[in-house]
Design brief:
The chain is an all-alpha fold.
């Protein structure tokens, strides 16, 4: 009746396999929490940078000035600003090659922005697969530790002539600790994955909308100046 059934004491007297399972789950839990914290701040910074650039973009600043600012601020730019810079960079490269066809210029800029968008989306989704794996696998790893612990407990009880609840409880309890820690590792990972997946979907929709809006601006400028493609980089974006 005076047995110490605290989690630490149970783990100290658990079998080696259960101890290794619990150690693995603790390491995985720490890694998943680190990934959750990094992803939270990364997505928050991404949203802030996108909002700042979008306000500047629609403030009436010329595309040339925006592109120059994006080139100088490349290391600290947000996804939307990098997408804009990639489209303008491809547009200017085509113009330097004396391409004057508006459709070719617009298609080149759009393809460059799409490629940049995919790179930004891949970067935003980094570590999400790790969280998904932790959320789906950790309960089964903990269950494995529990099954093994129960097997070990009953094997030890086989040598006893009289089995009581007091003799069974410690072995069962130490085995169930593995399942509890497996759930402790899995639940935050699943919650974090679902939240971040929704946030990334919202960011992706905002970026795709911006690509279409910027493409429309380029198309309007090219249509208004069919004989002077260069004018597209000097006209400020029209208000939405």
């Amino acid at each position: 009746m005076n047995q110490d059934l605290s989690i630490i004491n149970l783990l100290l007297h658990a079998s080696f396999v259960v101890q290794m399972v619990v150690l693995l789950l603790v390491i995985v839990s720490i890694a998943s929490w680190a990934a959750i914290i990094r992803k939270y701040f990364a997505l928050r910074r991404m949203r802030t940078l996108n909002d700042d650039f979008e306000r500047e973009f629609w403030s009436g600043t010329s595309l040339n000035e925006l592109f120059a600012s994006a080139a100088q601020n490349a290391k600290f730019a947000g996804p939307m600003e990098r997408i804009f810079a990639s489209g303008m960079r491809e547009y200017q490269k085509l113009r330097e090659r004396h391409v004057s066809d508006p459709a070719t210029l617009l298609d080149g800029a759009r393809r460059a922005m799409r490629a940049s968008f995919q790179r930004e989306l891949d970067a935003a989704e980094q570590n999400l697969s790790f969280l998904a794996t932790v959320g789906s696998v950790s309960p089964y790893v903990g269950l494995f530790g529990t099954v093994w612990g129960i097997m070990h407990a009953f094997t030890g009880l086989a040598a006893l002539t009289q089995v009581t609840l007091a003799t069974v409880a410690p072995g069962i309890a130490e085995a169930l600790v593995a399942t509890a820690i497996g759930l402790f590792a899995a639940i935050p990972a699943v919650v974090g994955y679902n939240r971040f997946a929704r946030e990334i979907d919202k960011i992706a929709i905002a970026l795709e909308t911006y690509i279409e809006e910027f493409s429309n601006i380029l198309q309007r400028n090219l249509s208004a100046n069919p004989g002077a493609a260069a004018a597209a980089t000097t006209v400020a974006p029209a208000n939405r």
